[in-house]
C-alpha cells in the first residue's frame, strides 16, 4: 500500500474471495486469484494505492492496471483525483481513488486482471459508496481499432462506460482541450459497459471508462519510465487531467444529494 492511503473500516463484507488460483494468458481471472498466488509478493510484484476521505465523495477514480501494466494510468488517476503524481499534494477538489499497480521491472502484463474481474474489497467498497466513477486505462492503437473503426488520431482517448451523461461530458471536455476523443460505447472490447465492470458498480450503477492509446500516454511524459513519469509530466498530461476534472465537476453540480 502507498503512503497516501487511509485504512478502510468495515470492508470485509464485500464480495467473497474466490477459491481458485488460476493464471491466464492475459493475466488472472480476479484479483483474489492474483492475491492468493504464493509466487507473487505485495510490494515487490504488485501494490495498491488507496485514498478514501471521511466526507461523502460523489466521484471515485480508478486505475485497475497501473504501474507497469498500462504505464501512465497511475499518474493520471492521481492527478484526476486531485493529487500531484510526484508530491501527492492535493490541489482543488479531491476525490477518492484506488489503483492496482504492477511493480516489476518487466513482465507486468502477466498481472493484468480485467475490470469485470475486479473483486478487490477496497475497490468494490469505494465504487459502491460513490455516485460516479472514472477509470483510467491504456490500450494500443491496434487494440483501439480492432474490429471497429479508424481513430481520428493515433493519440486518442476512447470513452466508454454506462454513464452516458458523464461520457458525453468527458468527450466534449477533451475535444475542447484539443485532445482527440471518441465515444467507445459501441467498441466490441473497450466499451466499458458491462454491469460487472468495477467502474459501473457505483450507487447509480454507471461510470466512465477512459482508454488512452499508447501514443497519447507517451506524449504526457518527457521521460516515460516508472521512476520518472511522475516527475516529467507535460502540458498534454495536465490538459487531459483538467478536461476530465472539468467534466466531473460539471456533472457533480447537477447532482442532488438527498
How does this model look, in words?
The chain has 258 residues and is α/β, with parallel strands linked by helices. The chain has a single domain, classed as Aminopeptidase, CATH 3.40.630. It has helices at 31-35, 73-81, 121-128, 141-145, 164-176, 214-218, 235-252; strands spanning 23-24, 27-28, 46-51, 59-67, 96-102, 132-139, 156-160, 180-183, 208-213. The protein has a 7-stranded mixed β-sheet with strand order 3-5-4-6-9-7-8, with helices on both faces. The longest helix is centred in the C-terminal third of the chain and has 18 residues, at 235-252. Residues 1-26 have low confidence and may be disordered.
What attributes characterize this protein structure?
alpha/beta, Aminopeptidase, disordered N terminus, 258 residues, 7 helices, globular, 19% strand, two-stranded antiparallel ribbon, single chain, 24% helix
What is the fold-level CATH name, i.e. the topology?
Aminopeptidase
Number of strands: 9
Mean pLDDT: 90
CATH architectural label: 3-Layer(aba) Sandwich
Shape descriptor: globular
Secondary structure class reads alpha/beta
Short description:
By secondary structure, this protein is α/β, with parallel strands linked by helices.
How do the strands and helices of this protein lay out in sequence?
Blueprint: E1 23-24, E2 27-28, H1 31-35, E3 46-51, E4 59-67, H2 73-81, E5 96-102, H3 121-128, E6 132-139, H4 141-145, E7 156-160, H5 164-176, E8 180-183, E9 208-213, H6 214-218, H7 235-252
Parallel strand pairs: 4-5, 4-6, 6-9, 7-8
Antiparallel strand pairs: 1-2, 3-5, 7-9
Helix pairs in contact: 2-7, 5-7
